Amino acid sequence: MKVLKQLLDFYLNCSIHTALLCYAMVQITFHVFHIQYDESMALFAFFGTIVGYNFVKYDALVRVKKYPVGSPLKFIALLSLVSFILVGYYFFQLKRITQIVSFGILALTALYTLPFFPNRRNARNWAGVKIYIVAICWVGATLVLPLINAEIPFSSDFFIKCIQRFILFFVMILVFEIIDLAKDDPYLQTVPQKIGVKRTKILGLLLLIPFCLLEFLISTFNYSDLFINIIMVIILCLFIIFANTSRSKYYTYVWVESVPIFWWLMIVFQSNF
């Protein structure tokens, strides 16, 4: 049992689960906009997530706090290096415009991590800003880049899906902020810090209403996708309702992050039957 827990922790610490979430959301974008599977785009997003998230998590730990680099961090660094090489490989298979936009997302991620301005904290520590930057980065990586690379014009469907995707990630991050409330720096001004846990839960639940209603405005609307979306929303609602500061990290890092993966698997199952 201890070995399984260590393997799970390593799997999570390497950001592989988060990368699967990103891969699943890219696949959902392919499905919604009827884009043929693009291996380069999907794997660029997958390996890019590993590189980006590991950089965000461990840069300050090693560079600023001088945390000793033991075996686990060495393995994570090796995985990140291999992922970085693969990101470079798939990057050069993308369209030029996709490459340019991906640099914009990379710049936003770097702003989130590194203190570019003298005597200022990085964007991750700017009061009240973190949740918006993270949600925007996720929308860019899982929706904007795949559509640009597939040369799909920006129609009303695109903007509706951008709003939906932003709401989804915003609500998922709210669950993280509820769980992390006790250990988050008060300076961060997270949503639960500003309005309390109960109101944060209400906000998350209310935001999922327009998420569902916007589905009716999509030109490719069909009841099968709506039904799957509703199941996904119900699951996410349950995670919001039962979130509290005493929950372990697995509540968010395993189960909440699994919601989009489960969403994608439902689509795959529905498409094959």
- Helix/strand-derived class? mainly alpha
Question: Which second-level CATH architecture applies?
Answer: Orthogonal Bundle
| Main CATH class | Mainly Alpha
- How many E strands? 0
Q: Overall mean pLDDT score?
A: 89
Strand content: under 5%
**H/E element string?**
HHHHHHHHHHHH
Ends distance: 37 Å
Specify the overall morphology. Answer: globular
Into which percent range does the helicity of residues fall? over 70%
- Cα-atom radius of gyration: 19 Å
What does this entry look like structurally?
It contains twelve helices and no strands. The protein has 273 residues and is mainly alpha-helical. Helix 3 (39-63) packs antiparallel against helix 4, helix 3 runs parallel beside helix 5 (96-113) and helix 6 (130-149) runs antiparallel to helix 7 (156-179). The longest helix is centred in the N-terminal third of the chain and has 25 residues, at 39-63. The radius of gyration is 19 Å and the shape is globular.
List keywords for this structure.
12 helices; globular; mainly alpha; Farnesyl Diphosphate Synthase
Short characterization:
The chain has 273 residues and is an all-alpha fold.
